[in-house]
Amino acid sequence: MVVLAGNPYLEGNFAPVDLELTVDNLQVIGEIPPDLNGMLIRNGPNPLFPSQAWYHWFDGHGMLHGVEISNGKAKYCNRYIQTEGWKSEKAAGRAMSSGFLAPPQQGNPSPPVNTANTAVVWHGDRLLALWEGGEPYQIEVSELKTVSPYTYGGDLKSAFTAHPKVDFATGEMMFFGYSWVDLPYLQYSVVSHEGKLLRTVPIDLPVGVMMHDFAITAHYTIFMNLPLTFRLERAQQGKPPLLFEKDIPSRFGILPRHRDNSSIRWFEAPACYIAHTLNAYEDGDEVVLIACRMPSTTMLGLAGRAQEIHSDLAFLHKWRFNLKTGAVIEEPLDDIPSEFPRVNEQYLGRNTRYGYTSRLTPNSVPLFDGLIKYDFATNSSQIHELGQGRYGGEGVFVPRTPHISQGGEDDGWLLTFVYDEVAKISELLILNAKEIVVEPVARIILPQRVPYGFHGTWIEQTNLKSVAI
Ligand SMILES: [Fe+2]
Asked: Taking 90 as the threshold, does the pLDDT of residue 105 lie above it?
């Protein structure tokens, strides 16, 4: 692939890779813990024929990078997600759709295609690759082959967020799908432990918005109706249809998990944008939400060209929504910008003591130069510095055991892909989550560059062998 200069999302370690590899017996610096067995799979964009002028990080076709770990040894595998859009482009030998940044047609912005490029979720013995504008794609583990779009036997009625929430205690999965143009603007679904789509209900919103994530507690689901609005009339005036409206408050909708729109309660807070939530939980009469808050957003330059992008820096914040009084308290938790928040998902929806984020550098493109571990009980944090010229991604918490460990909530490891921009080598870093400041317990040297990407998940070894197709 020939990559011309000029677009930061096609340069350095944002540039795509050409090869799909399977490589065994990877070099390891340190020692892979003997009780860490399974597979880390991370999704991210890898364009086939990017437009030099308009390519944006969100546009590339999904590619999965997987590292399977067994008995102290590691194997790497990467595969394109063979979506319908990927197949069309591959057959045509050229780009088939314009991206996020391409100028809208008169009143008719060309929709981006489903790239399945954002995240993966393991639920109901299935691995699904996710993109918030369309249906999931089922992926066969551990070879990472694309099976087909997955629609719950035709029951799927909406798009499917890249950030569904699985309640470890009940096995249920909650997800939503939003639309910018068609009513209902928001639909909410619950999937049973076994993987059956139980119900989908519409949720009223005044206007279509970009809604990337949400949160759950043990009893509630929390929607974030934030003022990054989509208005076709703006496109008709030659303006970006998607824009942050700073004068419209943020609205947080709290809904008992199994109820519908008639039971939702909305709370208002100052305008902000939130791409990702860390967790939420109940505390007496209050529902508490912890998330990475941006005071406003250009959504990584949606309103401009890629060359004009600046980072939308996010800072960890906490909101308290009082279900009895209606009061809202919002407070910052850190003055260090970070994103890609995660917790030990065995505790998702419960009061987690620990949270993990990736520290953002104030660059024109999002680069993460450290991993942060928050201790909310002591209001303290620790940082694992990745080192000069080394940038990572999301830190995925891997619990030591598939059941809740006696060793505590942080008994496990933090895994992230790191690219060394000087040595030009990608690694998978394994940190002891109890003590992240010290040297990694292992660095797995990868056989090719792994471009900066989005979200990943860990699949236990036993699940690699019990796959529902
Ligand atoms: Fe995301």
From this structure: no
Q: 62 C-alpha to center of ligand 1: Å?
A: 13
Cα(301) to ligand 1 centroid in Å equals: 16
- The CA 213 to ligand 1 mean position distance, Å, reads 7
Domain count, the chain: 1
Residue among 283, 254, 278, 266 at smallest CA distance from 163: 278
CA dihedral 152, 153, 157, 163 (to 10 degrees): 10
355 strand-pairing partners: 374
Considering the domain boundaries, does residue 102 fall inside one? yes
- Residue 125: what residue type? D
Backbone φ and ψ of 263, nearest 5°: -105, 5
Angle at 301 between CA 299 and CA 307, to 5 degrees: 155
Q: pLDDT per residue over 312-336, tens digit each? A: 789 999 999 999 999 999 999 999 9
Cα separation, 140 vs 132, whole angstroms = 20
Amino acid letter, 322 = N
Question: Which pLDDT does position 100 carry in this prediction?
Answer: 72
Whole-number Å distance, alpha carbon 178 to ligand 1 midpoint, is 15
For residue 145, the tally of other CB atoms under 10 A from its CB is: 13
Within a domain: residue 5? Answer: no
Quote the ligand 1 centre to 258 CA distance (angstroms): 24
Residue 54 φ/ψ, nearest 5 degrees: -120, 0
Q: E strand or H helix at 89, and its extent?
A: helix 84-92
Q: pLDDT by residue (tens digit) across 352-364? A: 999 999 999 987 7
> In angstroms, rounded to a whole number, what is the distance separating the alpha carbons of residues 45 and 210?
19
**What is the C-alpha separation between 267 and 225, in angstroms, rounded?**
10
CATH number of the domain within which 217 lies:
2.120.10.30
Given a contact cutoff of 8 angstroms between Cβ atoms, the answer to whether 462 and 55 are in contact is no
pLDDT band at 144 (very low <50, low <70, confident <90, very high): very high
The span from the CA of 42 to the CA of 393, in Å, is 10
| Domain hosting residue 199, numbered range | 18-465
